[in-house]
Structures are given as C-alpha cells and as structure tokens.
Amino acid sequence: MKTLKAFRLISYLEGLSFLVLLGIAMPLKYLLDMPLPVTITGALHGGLFVLYILAVGYMMIAFKWSFAKGLLAVIASVVPFGPFIFDKKMLNDEAPPTRAL
Fold first, then answer.
1. Cβ-contact 25, 35 below 8 angstroms
2. What is the pLDDT along the chain (101 residues), one digit of tens a residue?
3. Which of 88, 86, 68 is nearest to 18 (CA)?
4. Which sequence spans correspond to the domains of the chain?
5. Residue 100's Cα: distance from chain center in Å?
6. Of 75, 73, 10, 74, which is closest to residue 45 (Cα–Cα)?
7. Under a CB-based contact definition with an 8 Å cutoff, are residues 9 and 18 in contact?
8. Angle of helix 82-90 versus helix 67-76 axis, rounded to 10
9. What 3-state class would DSSP assign to 8?
10. Which ranges of 25-100 does DSSP label H, i.e. alpha helix?
11. If we measure between CA atoms, which residue out of 96, 90, 94, 93 comes closest to residue 74?
12. Is 0.90 surpassed by the pTM of this model?
C-alpha cells in the first residue's frame, strides 16, 4: 500500500509542477519578461517528470499494470490535469499486489 501512496504523491507533485509551469511561470516569462521562474519550475518539473516515468515503470511491474494502463499514465503526464484525472479514473480500485510466500 505504501507503493501506491508514493506513486500518488509523485503523480500529484508532477501534475502540480506542470500546472505551475504553464499557469504561473510561463506567463511571468512571456508577459513580464521574468525568465527565472521558468528556469526554477522547469528544472523541478523535469526532475519530477523523470521520477514519475520511473514510478510508472515500477507500478507496471509491481502491480502488473497492462501496457495500455502504463501508456495512459504516461500520456496523462503531458496533459494539464492529466495525472489527477488518471488517479481518479484508474487508481480508485487499485489493490496492493499479492505476494507469494
């Protein structure tokens, strides 16, 4: 269960960083000529994006996600609000993986 919570945390942070980048940092850069917020937020978002992709790969293995579900998770990461929608639609009924003794 900790794995699912960790994935959700990474997903929320990645989605939030994308929204901040698009909704705050980019307008500051192009409307007020302030490029520093894009530099900072862009680097943070890039790191979270890589972490999210690695987490999706781990979830595909640990929770036996299908290729289609993994692909949807990746596509969700490049759509504004996508990670939140993916969580609501695809992760609500997620059960922890069963382990053989």
1. no
2. 688 999 999 999 999 999 999 999 999 999 999 999 999 999 999 999 999 999 999 999 999 999 999 999 999 999 999 999 999 998 876 665 555 44
3. 86
4. 2-90
5. 30
6. 10
7. no
8. 150
9. helix
10. 26-32, 36-62, 67-76, 82-90
11. 90
12. no
